[in-house]
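Hey, quick one: can you model this chain's 3D structure?
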Amino acid sequence: MEKGLEYIVRKFPDHGTSVIDMYTVDEDFRILCSDYVTSVETLEECRLKVLNDKTIENEYVQLSLDLEKEILHLLRKKNK
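Sure thing. Here's the predicted structure for all 80 residues.
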């Protein structure tokens, strides 16, 4: 299993099967998941480096939340 897919399955355990199904067949969903994982990883790097510029950190916090909401929206839509 790819690193990004593993992360998303762990992040949304209630939707594990749907995540795998969508990730397998939907390129846009794979890109969305990849963007989310990259955003979360970048945010962690920013926090570890303790950047003085909180603006960048706040932008990645918001980006990660927005991407997470979009992933959940798509997963819930699929499960209806």
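One thing worth noting: The mean pLDDT is 88.
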